[in-house]
Amino acid sequence: MRESASTASSVASTPSGEPRLNRRQAAKVRTRQKVLDAARNLFAERGYEPATIRDIAKGAGMSTGAVFANFQDKAELFEAVLTEDMAGLAETMQKGAGDGSTRDRLVNALSAGYHGSIDQLPLFQAIVARSWFQPVAAETRQRAATRSLTDVIAGILRQGVAAGELNQDADVPLLTELTWDAYLSNYRRAAYDGWTVDQLARHIGRQVDTLLAGVATK
Amino acid sequence: MRESASTASSVASTPSGEPRLNRRQAAKVRTRQKVLDAARNLFAERGYEPATIRDIAKGAGMSTGAVFANFQDKAELFEAVLTEDMAGLAETMQKGAGDGSTRDRLVNALSAGYHGSIDQLPLFQAIVARSWFQPVAAETRQRAATRSLTDVIAGILRQGVAAGELNQDADVPLLTELTWDAYLSNYRRAAYDGWTVDQLARHIGRQVDTLLAGVATK
């Protein structure tokens, strides 16, 4: 996960040709981003439940009213942080894949994921914990956010099939799911056993080897 | 998970030669079990956070003081339910394995696990959610409780190696971990997608096929 890099100026002069924001709109975007960053810090520090809107507002240097002007409640704020961070993490993974064999690209991508998220481990723990006990609507939105990450895994596997490194009949969705479950589960080793990024990377490497053993063509 | 079958009389006349409980001790065991059963029902109904000691006491037909005489706090009560249920579920899985190939025994055991726990799905969700955000000491105790389940998986895999159905160099701990991660993750399909036990069983079957594909000897 990352500290957001977006600022009002980068939004105002978007290179993709979206309409420029006027001053008032830009200020609104800035405020929203300030709230998001303060919320991210607090969720990462304490987890979901103990983080209060009051303390998030304090961290952003604004009133609780200003927070509520941007987000309906803590749950919506949490989801906005989640969505932003998952998108950033997916980019990190995609870049981290690099070149090489399917196995290496997959392990490199996932290792980059650990590298890019470990400093906000409690936030990640809060996200997974919440994913087990939330309203269906929240789950649907969270899946959409997580989708960007699993898409990176699936993309690498599909390229492996296309390149003939994996069997043509490899079940990419099932392998993606198993890889993702293993990836996620390993965070608990970091949380409770103090595993470093290197240890996580080595472990997911062995797990990927096991998962691909049945579908590798050589 | 199960409704506990233990009663004061079965404890008092333990066949394993443990000392018989006197009347007062037996009453204490009965009370403790009543609290545990009421707590299990409430955790299964509401999840961990919203369940209160007050309502657990009410469900058990006793005062909150009587609950606290047996358990220090809600966390200890939750762990006691968890330990009892995991032990019961491990037994269910072990019996469910039956005869047949390693693959079939593993899938049968895990399917029996789903069958024996699906009626208390919210309790299971609460257990997993909590496992992501709890003190290390609680995590250590929870791992000990979960160990009985992963031991069933590991046992079946080891027998498969011994029988020559799996490669001699199969990494049993790693396969156990991947199988367990997949097994656990599937509960989310039941929680959010309404999957039935049959759907869960079919899915874990495909996952086990993928996991064993690289280590099966034929």
TrEMBL record, chains A, B:
PROSITE patterns the record matches: HTH_TETR_2 (PS50977)
Keywords attached to this entry: DNA-binding, Transcription, Transcription regulation
Biased composition (Low complexity): 1-16
Pfam families for the chain: TetR_N
Gene3D superfamilies listed in its UniProt record: Tetracycline Repressor, domain 2 (1.10.357.10)
InterPro entries per the UniProt record, alphabetical: Homeodomain-like_sf, HTH-type_TetR-like_transc_reg, HTH_TetR, Tet_transcr_reg_TetR-rel_C_sf
Residue ranges, annotated region (Disordered): 1-29
Domain HTH tetR-type: 29-89
Transcription keyword on record: yes
DNA-binding region extent: 52-71
MF annotations from Gene Ontology: DNA-binding transcription factor activity; transcription cis-regulatory region binding
Name of the protein in question: TetR family transcriptional regulator
Annotated organism of origin: Brevundimonas subvibrioides
